[in-house]
Amino acid sequence: xxxxxxxxxxxxxxxxxxxxxxxxxxxxxxxxxxxxxxxxxxxxxxxxxxxxxxxxxxxxxxxxxxxxxxxxxxxxxxxxxxxxxxxxxxxxxxxxxxxxxxxxxxxxxxxxxxxxxxxxxxxxxxxxxxxxxxxxxxxxxxxxxxxxxxxxxxxxxxxxxxxxxxxxxxxxxxxxxxxxxxxxxxxxxxxxxxxxxxxxxxxxxxxxxxxxxxxxxxxxxxxxxxxxxxxxxxxxxxxxxxxxxxxxxxxxxx
Length: 254
Prior knowledge:
Blueprint: E1 2-6, E2 9-17, E3 20-25, E4 46-51, H1 68-82, E5 87-92, H2 94-105, E6 110-116, H3 125-141, H4 144-154, H5 158-169, H6 173-184, E7 200-205, H7 213-222, E8 227-231, H8 238-241, H9 243-250
Parallel strand pairs: 3-4, 3-5, 5-6, 6-7, 7-8
Antiparallel strand pairs: 1-2, 2-4
Helix pairs in contact: 1-2, 3-6, 4-5
C-alpha cells in the first residue's frame, strides 16, 4: 500500500484502474480489503482509490477523539495529494457516514455519492449509549466480544462470516474505540439530501441485520432521482454477497 501523512495520521491506500475517480470507503470495523472482490469489476470504468480509514488496516490514528468530519478531511487530504479535485465517493455502512460528511463539507468536490448498506439518520439515544458501552468494553477487555457479536450480523453466509471475523481481528482496539465514538456523535444527514444534484446510488440487502432496508428506501424517497438497488438475499456486505450487482450499480457513478 501507498501511504501519505495527513491530519497527523499516516493514511494507507491502494489505487488501481482508470476513468472517473471513485473513492471506496470501508465500513466499521474493517479495512479496504472489503472491496477486493468488487474492485476488478470496476477498474475498467473508474480510477479506484481504496483507503484504510484512520486507525484501520495500515493507517495510524490519534489518541484524542475524532469525528466523521475528521475522517472526511482525511479523504480530502488524500485527494489533494493525489492531485484529484473532484471524485465520486461511495461508502459502506460507516463509510457511508464518512461519504455524507464529505458531501456536506466539500460539495464542490463530489461528483457522485454511493451509500452501500448505510443510512443518513443519527443514532437514537439508546444506540448512542450502546456504542459508548461497546467502546468501554473494547478498552477493558479487547475486541473479542465485539467481533463475535458482529460477525453473524454481517451475513448468513458462514464463509463470509469467517472473512468478516478475520478482517475485524486484524484491527487495533484504538480503531474500534475511535470509530464507535465518532459514529455515536454523528449528525443527522437528512437535511443534506435535497441539495444532492449529482448521481446518487443506494445499494442495500433486504436481509441486512444491522441497518434495515427501510433506511435505504427513506433516502430514495428524499432523493427521487437516486438509483436504488435492493438485493433480495444479501445482508450487510453486498460487495461480497452480490458483487456483480453491486459493481453494476456503482457504475452509475461514472
